[in-house]
Amino acid sequence: MANRGRPTLQKRQKERARQDKQKDRVTRREDAKLRRASAPDRTDTNDPDIADITPGPQPLPDWQQEFLEEESTDEEESEN
């Protein structure tokens, strides 16, 4: 059975990488906190993505409306 070499160097490198990664995470979190704190307050309660939407059925898009009109005229022609 062969003895393996001492893994201390690899272990140190792995531990150093883990510590560096943890430091990066901490600094990223701190930066995010500062960015959120310095961001302007959203006093507007309306979401701009849904500002134009009204409750209830929505109008059909133009392409769908045209398709339905063509389909209804085809039905009328086939009945006559």
Would you give an account of this structure?
Helix content is 61%, strand content 0%. With 80 residues, the protein is an all-alpha fold. The protein has a domain at 9-36.
Outline: elongated
Low-confidence stretches: none
Q: Mind summarizing the main beta sheet?
A: none
Secondary-structure-based class equals mainly alpha
**Percent strand:** under 5%
N- to C-terminal separation? 94 Å
Radius of gyration: 32 Å
Instruction: Tell me roughly what share of residues is in helical segments.
Output: 55-70%
Give the tally of β-strands.
0
Element pattern in H and E? HH
How many helices?
A: 2
Whole-number mean pLDDT: 85
Descriptive keywords:
mainly alpha; 0% strand
Summarize the structure.
This protein is mostly helical and 80 residues long. 61% of the residues lie in helices and 0% in strands. The mean pLDDT is 85.
Please render the helix and strand layout as text.
Blueprint lengths: L7 H31 L23 H18 L1
